[in-house]
Amino acid sequence: MSTLSLPSVVVIGAGTMGHGIAQVAAVAGHAVTLVDASPAALERAVAKVGQSLDKLVEKGKLGAEAAAGARARLGVAAGVEDAVAGAGIVVEAIPENLEWKKALFARVDAAAPSGALLGTNTSSLSIGAIAAAVRDPSRVIGLHFFNPVPLMSLLEVVVHDAVSDDARARALAFGAGLGKECIVVRDLPGFATSRLGVALGMEAIRMVEDGVASAEDIDKAMVLGYRHPVGPLRLTDMVGLDVRLAIGEHLAATLGNPAFTPPRLMREMVAAGQLGQKSGQGFYRW
Ligand code: CAA
Ligand code: NAD
After folding, report:
1. Which of 69, 136, 265, 276 is deepest in the core (most CB within 10 A)?
2. Measuring CA to CA, which residue among 104, 103, 100, 79 is closest to residue 91?
3. Strand partners for 34
4. Per residue in 254-278, pLDDT tens?
């Protein structure tokens, strides 16, 4: 397919996930606008996309021309309404807070073309509840990417009861065009990924609290003993302790399973600003 016919993409939220989603969409040939309420976040995001593209070129995973093309196709904006006015696909990647996401979707609904596909990168929240904030919920779908987006091949497409066949087909085509392997998952808390991954992460933190072993050795147990690519504590650092705390609270409440209840140590670390990789300190120093 000619890249000229690809829908333009607007990614809202330029943090850990948003910058990566914008990057892979730009590499795939979409014109992309990355939006954030914080100008500093936008600046950091552009720098991180640049570093990531450089690294991919250096490793021979991407041609220099393709990287230059992606840079040229990626723009930034501070205002949501102006940015989404001509969008074909909108991907929301703001923090894991249902009320914030609903408020944003209502704004996007009012300003985006009526045919635009509206995706949310939520890790755990109800897609149906987010979709209820727009006039036509059938065009809202879960587009759950994984961190770091340029390296992770999965896209979890989360379908709520009212989603249209067209939205589902467009989401799958978008994912395939980005080179992602898609799975289709029902809109139940934590979907197919976070429900398993977060259970492991929370238990690993409780094991640190219990003094089972050091964080490094608990991670080593899973890396060497179970062949996980990264241990659950290092992964919690990479995701962000604040992000996982919000997911854990939501899953504990909706699934009624205490395994998801965030441990005391996690709450203390988040309160102290120890958010993991993005703040420089978590279970590891970054
Ligand atoms: N862009 C380009 N390069 C990147 C990068 C990025 N965004 N992030 C890291 N890299 C580079 C590193 O700089 C490093 O480069 P060097 O080798 O030159 O030092 C390299 O990638 C890392 O390479 P490795 O050989 O160590 O590892 P790998 O290539 O085999 O795998 C990985 C990297 C795929 C990220 C692997 O570490 C992994 O699988 N980690 C686990 C990731 C994971 O589980 N993610 C899911 C998180 S949960 C989630 O996302 C959902 C949610 O809702 C919270
Ligand atoms: P983050 O905190 O790194 O970034 C969020 C960004 O959104 C910030 O830059 C913030 O300034 C911006 N923002 C907040 N409100 C906004 C608004 N109303 N309009 C525009 N910008 C706004 O968050 P993240 O880790 O990228 O997570 C984003 C979403 O992706 C969450 O729903 C999270 O659960 C999900 N997710 C996270 C990961 C991960 O590994 N961190 C993986 C998959 C999915």
Report:
1. 276
2. 104
3. 11, 76
4. 999 999 999 999 999 999 999 999 9
pLDDT at 5: 85
Does ligand 2 have an atom closer than 6 angstroms to the CB of 277?
no
Q: Which residue is closest in CA terms to ligand 1's atom 26? A: 229
Does residue 3 carry a pLDDT above 70?
Answer: no
Q: Tell me the residue ranges of DSSP E strands in 79-169.
A: 89-92, 117-120, 140-144, 154-159
The whole-number pLDDT of residue 126 equals: 98
Pocket probe for ligand 1: among 123, 127, 151, the residue whose CB has the most ligand atoms within 8 Å is 151
DSSP-derived secondary structure letter, 85: T
Whole-prediction pTM: 0.97
As to burial, measured by CB atoms within 10 angstroms (0-12 exposed, 13-18 middle, 19+ buried), residue 83 is buried
Q: Closest ligand 1 atom to the C-alpha of 58?
A: 18
Residue 180 to residues 24, 58, 74, Cα–Cα distance (Å): 10, 22, 20
pLDDT in tens, 30-85: 999 999 999 999 999 999 999 999 999 999 999 999 999 999 999 999 999 999 99
Task: State CA 234 to chain mean position distance.
Answer: 17
Ligand 1 nearest atom to the CA of residue 148, by list position: 7
Ligand nearest to the CA of 59: 1
The domains of the chain, with CATH numbers, are 3-186 (3.40.50.720), 195-271 (1.10.1040.10)
Distance of alpha carbon 222 from alpha carbon 224, whole angstroms: 6
